[in-house]
Amino acid sequence: MTMQLAPNGAHFFSDTAALTGRSLKHVTRSLDTIITTSLMPVAFLLLFVYVFGGAIKTGSHGSYVDYLLPGILLITVATGISYTAFRLFLDLKGGIFERFHSMPIARSSVLWAHVLTSVVANAISLAVVVLVGVLIGFRSGAGIGAWLAIAGILLLFTLALTWVAVIPGLTAKSPDGASAFSYPLIFLPFISSAFVPTASMPGPVRWFAEYQPVTSIVDTIRALFTGAPVGGDIWIALAWLVGVLVAAYVASMAVYRRRLA
Q: With 0-12 CB in 10 A as exposed, 13-18 as middle and 19+ as buried, what is 170?
């Protein structure tokens, strides 16, 4: 099989737009996917606020839902990208890739269509979770600039994890295997500052929690929500996000070329 190269940038963008439209139609015709990806984060949000929240001391002056929501947003994205890997696996096994690559389209547009669909679907899920948070008491004094910064961080986080999801989507042997990789990512926020301050954790766990990427990302989003100084956390968070994004993109494209060579 010969994979066609795009003759120019316009070809790549038009191909990606057309394939993204196709992928988004599948999502809009199956809204249960978005409902499912929102359901678990919302369940965590309600569980921790109404069951565990009264026993958890965060040391902050706001309500526990204000402290909790940034971590729940990351869990929402980690849940959503499992469906990206699943849809990618189905397209690959169903012969869709071979059909597209028999046409004169940009070789990477097929992957980018899945990635952009993931961004849109996760944005909807994030909006649902924020809305539920507002309904149960979440309040933010963030201005427009802070909200844009939060949106940018969540976009980078979604892109980074989606490109990570591409790898199992291309290499898994079964649908369950394609989506199962997301489980560690979903539970990583539990060993961070997302639910409780890291100071309350025992030594080795505290060390891991303080130096893993989720803590700096959560602390940055939390500070932006409350209008507090973000300090150096934002640069650590951005370094992690850009590093993971670049590494995952390079690895995904290498696997893609090898898988369809």
A: buried
